[in-house]
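Appendix C. Worked example: Putative Fe-S cluster assembly protein SufT
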Amino acid sequence: MDEQRTLTREVEVTLIPQGTPMTLPEGEQVTITHRLGGNFTIMTSNGMFRVSGANADALGEEVTETAKAADAAGANGPVEIDQLWEALKKVFDPEIPVNIVDLGLVYSLETSERLEGGHKVDMQMTLTAPGCGMGPVIAEDAKTHLEGVPGVAEAQVDIVWDPPWNQDMITEEGKMVLGLV
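Step 2, the predicted output written as structure tokens:
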């Protein structure tokens, strides 16, 4: 459901689909169109933008915490692969109401122990279209969510184009959300 809001302060946003960082002024009238993975997609008279959960207060919403919940001991413990996948299910392309896992955008997840302690996660993902300007934003969201999983000290997210993404890669759950089944 769309919700009209007035920005309570100046806020950093990302222009969709170009991925250009911008600033919207206090008092700007916006419409929240999506709440995806703790972030917001908004419309203004000048276009569509992504507002990070860290700036939710400018919309009159509660600020989300994506910082690590693990303490130092937890960072050195084992990494549960299921927790990595669950964390990635909170990452969305702001134009599509399906997470990147169910869209079939995550190609690989590998973990390795670091000499400094904790684990590193290496992830390869793709995008629905090569020209998507939101790619770096989505990859950064994935990195942040992975680094919030206990045991993960570092994450590297790379965008790859082989194999090319197609709609057959969407899970049944994703197809249901998109009305494809």
